[in-house]
């Protein structure tokens, strides 16, 4: 995480310098914001992000929350401003061609970037949509046909997404009347230990077949004694860590600790195999925060795998990079007779922004294979 933070801070610095330098060449910008104001203001915004990256990993508080809000949102806004500015530089050879038009083109690029940022804010602040799927699950008894699973992933609760946001999600999930509620990891942002203020709200999640969870990579950030199992267990969640449990006769739920967080240690180990080993007959649903080891899960007999982690890229065009790391990026896939559904995430990481897709909650209706035993 320290290395990631260093890269993020370096990237933020370069983006800030680039956008401010280009904005300073646009007459309508400098007429409204003199350079003696523009550059110090940019320095203050840069410092807010740098301080949050330096101090924010050690805890939480109102000041750090404000720094995170300003810094992370500014990072995304400047990135979206920088994309059309970069396009203008490419077309004009960094201002060598069509020189008289360059200031106007850069001004138009700033407007285009501002519109992209406005759309991203609107999408990020929208409540997550409910995305419905029907999955025919081998081994599911006919008596369980129609069982509904509601899945939430990547809530990233913390200084930016707090109790009010979670309270709305409790109501949203309750309105779906699920038989089973599952959390696919990254419940918490990971700044220190998870705060207990979320416990009363977690206790309000309920379903006839229980509330279940697996860990995400953020559960291990700053978690010096392990992830947030005790808090979730106090709330009545069952945390599946490389193991399975029979939810009801004929339906097995298995879960693994996040595979991305321990990717370097997977060689020679088989957490998916361990999680699925020795289970009773019936249908099997595997919960894995990261959409990895998919073929192995299918070969081990899982009928449905639910994942998250990718956020669907969250802010375009980061999805193109994420797809190179996670080929199973977002949506529904069929792999070796197993259905995989990758959530775009219920919350947001970093900036409260999304471009182009809103957050989502999955509602999966399980269907038995015709002729299945009752």
Please render the helix and strand layout as text.
Elements: H1 2-23, H2 27-32, H3 35-55, H4 62-92, H5 102-125, E1 129-137, E2 148-152, H6 163-175, E3 180-183, H7 199-202, E4 211-213, H8 229-234, E5 237-239, E6 243-248, E7 251-256, H9 271-276, E8 283-288, H10 294-299, E9 304-307, H11 318-325, E10 331-335, E11 338-342, E12 360-368
Parallel strand pairs: 1-12, 2-3, 3-4, 4-5, 7-8, 8-9, 9-11
Antiparallel strand pairs: 2-12, 6-7, 10-11
Strand content: 15-25%
Q: Identify the overall geometry.
A: elongated
Rg measurement, Å: 23 Å
Largest sheet: 6 strands, mixed
Main sheet strand line-up: 1-12-2-3-4-5
CATH architecture of the largest domain: 4-Layer Sandwich
Considering the chains and any ligands shown, give keywords for the structure.
374 residues, alpha/beta, 11 helices, elongated, six-stranded mixed β-sheet, 2 domains
Task: Describe, in plain words, how this protein is organized in 3D.
- By secondary structure, the chain is of the alpha/beta class.
- It folds into 2 domains: 2-125, no CATH class; 129-368, Metallo-dependent phosphatases (Purple Acid Phosphatase, chain A, domain 2), CATH 3.60.21.
- The chain has helices at 2-23, 27-32, 35-55, 62-92, 102-125, 163-175, 199-202, 229-234, 271-276, 294-299, 318-325, and strands spanning 129-137, 148-152, 180-183, 211-213, 237-239, 243-248, 251-256, 283-288, 304-307, 331-335, 338-342, 360-368.
- A 6-stranded mixed sheet has the order 1-12-2-3-4-5. Strands 6-7-8-9-11-10 form a 6-stranded mixed sheet.
């Amino acid at each position: 995480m320290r290395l990631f933070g260093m890269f993020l801070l370096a990237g933020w610095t370069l983006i800030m310098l680039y956008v401010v330098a280009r904005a300073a060449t646009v007459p309508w910008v400098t007429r409204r914001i003199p350079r003696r104001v523009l550059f110090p203001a940019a320095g203050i915004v840069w410092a807010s992000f740098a301080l949050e990256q330096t101090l924010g990993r050690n805890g939480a508080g109102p000041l750090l929350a404000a720094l995170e809000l300003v810094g992370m949102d500014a990072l995304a806004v400047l990135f979206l401003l920088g994309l059309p500015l970069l396009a203008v530089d490419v077309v004009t050879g960094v201002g060598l061609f069509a020189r008289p038009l360059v200031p106007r083109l850069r001004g138009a690029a700033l407007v285009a970037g501002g519109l992209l940022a406005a759309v991203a804010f609107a999408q990020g602040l929208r409540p997550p949509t409910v995305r419905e799927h029907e999955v025919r699950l081998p081994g599911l008894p006919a008596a369980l046909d129609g069982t509904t699973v509601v899945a939430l992933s990547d809530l990233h609760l913390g200084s930016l997404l707090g109790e009010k946001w979670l309270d709305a999600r409790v109501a949203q999930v309750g309105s779906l009347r699920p038989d089973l509620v599952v959390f696919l990891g990254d419940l918490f942002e990971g700044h220190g230990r998870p705060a207990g203020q979320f416990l009363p709200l977690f206790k309000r999640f309920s379903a006839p077949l229980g509330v279940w969870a697996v860990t995400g990579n953020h559960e291990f950030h700053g978690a010096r004694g392990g992830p947030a199992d005790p808090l979730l267990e106090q709330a009545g969640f069952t945390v599946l860590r490389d193991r399975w449990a029979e939810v009801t006769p004929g339906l097995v739920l298995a879960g693994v600790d996040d595979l991305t967080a321990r990717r370097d240690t997977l060689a020679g180990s088989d957490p998916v195999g361990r999680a699925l080993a020795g289970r009773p007959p019936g249908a099997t649903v595997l919960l894995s925060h990261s959409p990895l080891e998919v073929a192995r899960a299918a070969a081990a007999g899982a009928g449905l795998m639910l994942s998250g982690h990718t956020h669907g890229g969250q802010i375009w065009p980061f999805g193109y990079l994420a797809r190179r790391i996670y080929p199973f990026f977002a949506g529904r896939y069929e792999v070796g007779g197993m259905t995989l559904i990758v959530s775009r995430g219920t919350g947001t990481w970093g900036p409260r922004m999304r471009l182009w897709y809103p957050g989502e909650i999955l509602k999966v209706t399980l269907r038995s294979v015709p002729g299945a035993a009752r």
